[in-house]
Structures are given as structure tokens and as C-alpha cells.
Specification:
mainly alpha; two-stranded antiparallel ribbon; 13 helices
């Protein structure tokens, strides 16, 4: 009961905080500036960017699908997809994924029969998948386009190659560890096991695919104002995302934009970055809030019916 009450309070707080963040972000720009920035982007680039947003959130549903499989549960993909999209559409804007999107995940998964330990494992699993995706894409960018990565990061090409190889070694090491490590690690009263090798490989694939889609979305918008290469954009976005995670700023508000502008210089446009935040962060948000509201309404309705039945008996 206490956990349910806490989760409900987190949900209400998340909705309030998201509303405040939207107001705080948009108040920095006039509606004319935002509209002008988006109008400068050709419809083809804008629609392609929205398409990559859809693909990104589609990839993210497999984070949860793999996590549910990892904890040994079976749920319909539609259930997992709703829980994933709702929690991340809100969590991306609120920040602090373990708390914000984690609380929303708990609301969904607990009513489908998962206990607190299993939900905690799902949250940890998804966090690891995010990290693997960032590390793998960073390594690929450094190894495929070392000159561009060196210019953006500020290292020598040799340093970039070493860094890229280290990133790939870390992500590969995770799969190797999944093969050899068969035991479990105990944290307080919970036990965590490494996933099977197929699941670990799928984590690498969907984690990297997600960040490729997000980078492609940003790249399409930047092309309306300059001519940065895709791998330059991907390198800048991975760096910006890492900075946002370290800063703990909700939704990377301002951190992502500032980092991308700093790393790409004249190749980055604030107009493209405003459009990117609007498309990737704000566009899914109302849908996530609607999904959460409907889910909460259904739960309260069912609880009311159950209480009524008990009263009759």
C-alpha cells in the first residue's frame, strides 16, 4: 500500500514538474522564434526527423521487452510497449530515469503481477542497455571517422582510436562476461544475474540502434542550416547525452543544446536544436501523459468496482 501511494505521488509530481519544465524551456523563446526556426526546416527533413523519433521510441520498447524476458516473465508486447513509451515519454523530460520513469514502470508492471524486485531489475537492465548503446556508438564514431571525432572531442587521432577501441572492448566485454559469469550478485536483499548471451547481444543492438535513430533525427534538422556529417552529429550527440546524464539536469534541459553547439560550432543551429527538443522530447510527452491518465483512470475504475463487489458480498 505504501509503495502504491509513493508511486502515485511520484506520478503526480512528474506531471507537475513536466508542465513546469515545458513552460521554463519555451519561455526562453518567443512563439515567433520557435515557429520561424521550425519553418526554416524543409518539410521533407522535418517528416524524416519525426520518422526517426518514431523508430527511436520503437527501439526503446525492446529495452523493456528484453528486460521482461530477462526477469523470466511473459507479457504481451503491447503491454510492454505501452509501459515503455509512457514511462520514457515522461521520463525523458523529467530526468532522473531511475526515479521518474522507474515509478511509472512500477505502476504498470506491478498491476501485471511483477514484484518490486523484478521491476528494479527491469529498471537496472534498461539503464545498462542505455549505457551500452552510448558506449558502442561512441566507439563506432571514433573508429569509423577518427578525424571528425578528434576535431570534435579535442583529442589526437591516435587518442580517438584508442578511446574508440576501449569503448568497443567494454561493450564486447559485457557479452563475454554474460557468457562466462553464470552466478549472481547480491545487492541488499535482491540478487542480480547476468543476462544470457543472446539477450546481451540484443541489448547491444537495440541500444546502439536507438542512439543511431536519435542522432539521425538531429542530423536531419541540422542539415536545414548547415552540412555536418552524420558521424560528426552522432559524436556530438553522444557527448551531449553523456554530459546530460552526468549533470542530472531534467531532460538534459539546455545541456544537450549547449554541448552540441559547442562541439559542432557553426554547423549547429539553435533553430535545429529547438526543433529537435520539440520533436523528440515534447511531441511524445502529451501522448505519454494521456496514456498515463487513461491507465490511472482504468485502475481507479476497476478498484471502485472491486470495492463495490466486496461491499455487496
Amino acid at each position: 500500500m505504501a509503495m502504491r501511494l509513493f508511486a502515485r505521488l511520484i506520478v503526480v509530481a512528474a506531471i507537475i514538474l513536466v508542465s513546469w519544465l515545458i513552460y521554463g524551456t519555451l519561455s526562453k523563446y518567443s512563439m515567433g522564434e520557435i515557429a520561424t526556426s521550425i519553418r526554416q526546416i524543409p518539410p521533407g527533413h522535418l517528416l524524416t526527423a519525426v520518422g526517426f523519433v518514431f523508430l527511436s521510441y520503437f527501439c526503446l520498447t525492446f529495452f523493456d521487452a528484453l528486460a521482461v524476458r530477462y526477469v523470466g516473465r511473459q507479457l504481451a508486447y503491447t503491454q510492454v510497449a505501452i509501459a515503455s513509451f509512457t514511462s520514457l515519454a515522461i521520463g525523458h523530460n523529467v530526468g532522473g530515469a531511475a526515479l521518474s520513469s522507474g515509478a511509472i514502470r512500477y505502476r504498470f508492471y506491478s498491476r501485471w503481477g511483477l514484484n518490486a524486485e523484478e521491476v528494479a531489475k527491469i529498471i537496472l537492465f534498461c539503464g545498462v542497455t542505455v549505457g551500452l548503446g552510448l558506449i558502442t556508438l561512441a566507439g563506432l564514431c571514433c573508429l569509423i571517422m577518427p578525424a571528425g571525432a578528434a576535431r570534435i572531442i579535442g583529442l589526437s587521432q591516435t587518442g580517438v582510436l584508442i578511446f574508440g577501441a576501449t569503448c568497443i572492448a567494454v561493450s564486447s566485454g559485457y557479452v563475454i562476461l554474460a557468457y562466462f559469469l553464470k552466478g549472481s550478485v547480491r545487492v541488499f536483499r535482491w540478487r542480480f544475474e547476468m543476462p544470457s548471451v543472446p539477450i546481451a547481444v540484443c541489448q547491444l543492438i537495440v541500444g546502439t540502434a536507438n542512439f543511431l535513430c536519435v542522432s539521425a533525427c538531429l542530423h536531419q534538422l541540422l542539415l536545414a542550416f548547415g552540412n555536418p556529417s552524420f558521424f560528426d552529429t552522432a559524436t556530438a550527440y553522444v557527448s551531449a547525452n553523456a554530459a546530460a546524464l552526468v549533470s542530472h539536469v531534467p531532460g538534459g534541459l539546455g545541456v544537450i543544446e549547449a554541448t552540441v553547439v559547442f562541439l559542432l560550432g557553426s554547423s549547429a543551429s539553435i533553430g535545429a536544436l529547438i526543433a529537435f527538443r520539440a520533436i523528440y522530447f515534447f511531441l511524445p510527452l502529451p501522448l505519454g501523459l494521456i496514456s498515463l491518465s487513461i491507465a490511472e483512470f482504468v485502475v481507479h475504475r476497476d478498484d471502485g468496482r472491486n470495492l463495490a463487489r466486496k461491499a455487496k458480498t
